[in-house]
Each structure stands twice: as structure tokens, then as C-alpha cells.
């Protein structure tokens, strides 16, 4: 009976989520995520270059390595942010990476178990929908399947957005196994889905505000620098090329879009420098989001613990 009691969230839980704004102060997490994103970006660029040469094998290899690098980087960063969210001393990046190598398979295994469960349920739904073709039972059966299908698909999408995606990683980073994490997600869906949705709405709000602030800085600063260097000082670099670098575009993508390209040392420097700004601008909201997910997970676990003690 205690497990079925509704979870109650306090203002302290929301304060923990809003405290995720201090995530960029975690220098080790910032370094880990920035390094992994840069490495993944270089590998994906190599994959794009290989595919442009019709070298499909190396293109796939480089793309896979890039995704693995990004995945391990996110796990390493998540472990560092979980230490920060729990008020513990933040471990060394090397130790976090070593732990990420052990936690990453748990996350994949948990996601696989949930995916298999959803696939089985979806297969059953499709089988019942196939029976709708039969005479006599088709129409009555379809009357029942419409609400069942709508609720099942809607709940699945809702769970992926506010439970599976945000809470799987933090649960594993907190030391739980794949099976325990899957059970936690199912229990949270049954008894605390709305509370989780409220906390994740706060996480999305904070992340969106940070993204808006970072975008404003990048756009206004980029346009001002473009005016100073290109139009005012007369440096031979197209303004579009300077702005494109700030949003992660390279020479090949600019050429495909028909934008003016200057293949000069200054033009390449503009793209490289803009790419560095783009990497930092991408890292900051990601840090806040991951830190917010850790805070939401801890708040939900504290709420469950408080109820169990009643």
C-alpha cells in the first residue's frame, strides 16, 4: 500500500533542479564533455569526408566511433555531475571515464530491456489490429483497440520523454543496475509520472533559458565581430563564412548551400575559431540539462524514500 501512495514534491525539489544552473562551474565535467564533443565532431567530419570519396566502409567506421565517443563522453560527464548533485567531491576525469566504461553497458542493457517490452506490446497491438479485418468481430474489436492503442502509444511517447530518456542515465550513474533501473522507471510511471513530468518541465525550462542566452551571445557577438573584421577593417573573409563557423558549418556544407567561401588562411581560421565557439555553446546547455536530470532523479528518489518512511 505504501508503494502506491502518490509522491509529493516540495519546493526543495524544484530548487534542486534550478540549482543545475551551476553545472558550468564543474570544470572537470565541462572539460570532459567539451573534449568528447570535439573528438566526436572530428570523427564525424572524417566520416563525412570518407563518404564524399565513396568510401562507405570507413565512413561507417568513423561515424560509429564518433557516436561511441559522444556516448562515453556524456556518461563520463554525467558521473561527474552526479557527484556534484549529491554534494560529494567530484572525482577525477580519468576515474569518471573508467566508471563510464562500466556504466555505459548498463544503460544500453536497460534501454534494450525496455525496448523489447515495448516491442512485444506493440506486436500484440498490431496483431489485434490485424484481426480487425475479420468480419463480425472487426468492428467491435476496433472500438476497444482505438482507446487502448491511443493510450498505449501516448504513454510510451510520454515515458520516453520524461522518464526513460532523462532518468535512465542518472539512475545508473547513482550506482543502480540495469534491472533495478528498469524497475524504477516502471514504478515511477505507475506511481509518480506527473511528478516526474513536473520536474522535467522545470529542467526543460532551465535548459531552454540557458540555450536562449547562449544563442543571443553567439549571434550578437558574431554579427558584431563580422562587422568589425569584414566590413569595417576590410579583411577578405565573407561575413556568412564567419557566421557559419559559429553554427558548426564547414566548407563542404557551405559550398553545398551556395554560400560564398574563402579558402584562405583567414577563412579557415574563421571556421576553426567559430567551430570552437559552437562547441562551447553546445556544451553549456547540455551540462545544465544533464545536471538537471541528475537533480530530478535525486528529488524523485528522496520523495519515494520519505513516503516509505511514513
**Helices and strands, in N-to-C order?**
HHHHHHHHHH
Structural class: mainly alpha
Q: What's the count of strands?
A: 0
- The number of helical segments is 10
Uncertain segments of ≥5 residues (pLDDT<50)?
A: 1-6
Specify the helix fraction band: over 70%
Determine the N-to-C terminus distance: 11 Å
Radius of gyration equals 24 Å
Largest sheet: none
Q: Provide mean pLDDT, rounded.
A: 85
Give the overall shape: globular
Classify the beta-strand content into a percent band.
under 5%
Overall structural domain count: 1
Record the SSE blueprint.
Elements: H1 11-18, H2 27-52, H3 56-85, H4 93-131, H5 138-173, H6 178-191, H7 193-232, H8 239-246, H9 251-256, H10 265-308
Helix pairs in contact: 1-7, 1-10, 2-3, 2-10, 3-4, 3-10, 4-5, 4-6, 5-6, 5-7, 5-10, 7-8, 7-10, 8-10
What does this structure look like?
This protein is 81% helix and 0% strand. It is built from ten helices and no strands. The protein is globular and about 80 Å long. With 310 residues, the protein is mainly alpha-helical. Helix 1 (11-18) runs antiparallel to helix 10 (265-308), helix 4 runs antiparallel to helix 5 and helix 5 (138-173) packs across helix 10 (265-308). The longest helix is centred in the C-terminal third of the chain and has 44 residues, at 265-308.
Amino acid at each position: 500500500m505504501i508503494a502506491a501512495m502518490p509522491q509529493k514534491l516540495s519546493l526543495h525539489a524544484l530548487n534542486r533542479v534550478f540549482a543545475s544552473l551551476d553545472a558550468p562551474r564543474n570544470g572537470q565535467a565541462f572539460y570532459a564533455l567539451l573534449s568528447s564533443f570535439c573528438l566526436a565532431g572530428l570523427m564525424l567530419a572524417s566520416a563525412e569526408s570518407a563518404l564524399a570519396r565513396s568510401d562507405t566502409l570507413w565512413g561507417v567506421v568513423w561515424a560509429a566511433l564518433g557516436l561511441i565517443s559522444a556516448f562515453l563522453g556524456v556518461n563520463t560527464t554525467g558521473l561527474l555531475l552526479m557527484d556534484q548533485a549529491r554534494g560529494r567531491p567530484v572525482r577525477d576525469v580519468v576515474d569518471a571515464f573508467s566508471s563510464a566504461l562500466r556504466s555505459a553497458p548498463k544503460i544500453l542493457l536497460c534501454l534494450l530491456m525496455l525496448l523489447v517490452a515495448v516491442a512485444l506490446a506493440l506486436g500484440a497491438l498490431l496483431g489485434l489490429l490485424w484481426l480487425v479485418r475479420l468480419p463480425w468481430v472487426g468492428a467491435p474489436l476496433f472500438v476497444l483497440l482505438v482507446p487502448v492503442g491511443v493510450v498505449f502509444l501516448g504513454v510510451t511517447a510520454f515515458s520516453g520523454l520524461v522518464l526513460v530518456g532523462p532518468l535512465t542515465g542518472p539512475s545508473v550513474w547513482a550506482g543502480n543496475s540495469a534491472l533495478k533501473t528498469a524497475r524504477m522507471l516502471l514504478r515511477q510511471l505507475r506511481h509518480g509520472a506527473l511528478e516526474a513530468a513536473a520536474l522535467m518541465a522545470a529542467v526543460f525550462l532551465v535548459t531552454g533559458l540557458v540555450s536562449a542566452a547562449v544563442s543571443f551571445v553567439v549571434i550578437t557577438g558574431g554579427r558584431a565581430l563580422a562587422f568589425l573584421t569584414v566590413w569595417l577593417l576590410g579583411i577578405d573573409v565573407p561575413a556568412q563564412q564567419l557566421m557559419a563557423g559559429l553554427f558548426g558549418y564547414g566548407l563542404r556544407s557551405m559550398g553545398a548551400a551556395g554560400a560564398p567561401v574563402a579558402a584562405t588562411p583567414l577563412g579557415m581560421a574563421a571556421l576553426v575559431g567559430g567551430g570552437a565557439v559552437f562547441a562551447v555553446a553546445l556544451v553549456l546547455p547540455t551540462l545544465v540539462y544533464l545536471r538537471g536530470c541528475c537533480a530530478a532523479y535525486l528529488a524523485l528518489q528522496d520523495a519515494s524514500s520519505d513516503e516509505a518512511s511514513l
